[in-house]
Amino acid sequence: MELVTYPDVEIMMISLADRLASELRRGLEQNDRVSVAVPGGTTPGPAFDALSDTQLDWGRVDVMLTDERWVGEDSPRSNTRLLRKRLLTGRAAAANLVQLRADTETPEEGLPALIEAVEAALPLTSVVLGMGEDMHTASIFPGADRLEEALHGKATLLPMRAPGAPEPRITLTARVLNDAMNRHILIRGAAKREALEKARHMSADEAPVAAILRGTVVHWAED
Ligand SMILES: O=C1O[C@H](COP(=O)(O)O)[C@@H](O)[C@H](O)[C@H]1O
């Protein structure tokens, strides 16, 4: 992995947005469409603000989440809600949202309706991942019920339940994340930096983010 540290969070968010825009532009020179997967949670909002303002042929861009919490878009915990509000707005409103949420009670029931559109947008041109202090990434959590499949299996998308996750989830698997042409992890604050350093010396079963580190650029700034 390559660790890039920034003088502050604002510069980090703008730099990451610039870098993603360049990767997508380069992809569009050679392909009809490009795709990017982004995290939810509390970290990426400012990078979304910067990216949504970027000049790009957004009509040829597929945008998806790396993972979603199985809650409705009216919930403040909905990652799709964050995406619509902060990324799929302004210039980026022309992008195509590849949904990771269906209107069913469980992710198991919803998955068949989602998989085709997700697979049509693969391989990802770029992926940005977040990471929790427990070293989960996307919704691949330590102790999760389908951890083994998510880390080592051939699936594209999996339902996931974990002690550290308050609601059921759906997540892209390590295979899909590692197949992305450009991979980034976005973290801020001392606790996550420490967790990342620990994860580098742990197995992916204990620290799922370890499965995605090879060849990935980690972007970090102090809070
Ligand atoms: O639950 C989730 O957590 C991670 C990390 O979120 P953060 O709030 O600590 O930035 C996030 O990357 C993931 O997409 C989300 O569903």
TrEMBL record:
The keyword Hydrolase applies. Hydrolysis of 6-phosphogluconolactone to 6-phosphogluconate. The gene is pgl. NCBIfam families: pgl. CDD domains: 6PGL. Its EC number is 3.1.1.31. It comes from the Bacteria. It comes from Pseudoroseicyclus tamaricis. This is 6-phosphogluconolactonase. InterPro entries: 6-phosphogluconolactonase_DevB (IPR005900), 6PGL (IPR039104), Glc/Gal-6P_isomerase (IPR006148), NagB/RpiA_transferase-like (IPR037171). It catalyses: 6-phospho-D-glucono-1,5-lactone + H2O = 6-phospho-D-gluconate + H(+). One of its GO terms (biological process) is pentose-phosphate shunt. Residues 10-218 form the Glucosamine/galactosamine-6-phosphate isomerase domain. SUPFAM superfamilies: NagB/RpiA/CoA transferase-like. GO terms for molecular function: 6-phosphogluconolactonase activity. Pathway: Carbohydrate degradation; pentose phosphate pathway; D-ribulose 5-phosphate from D-glucose 6-phosphate (oxidative stage): step 2/3.
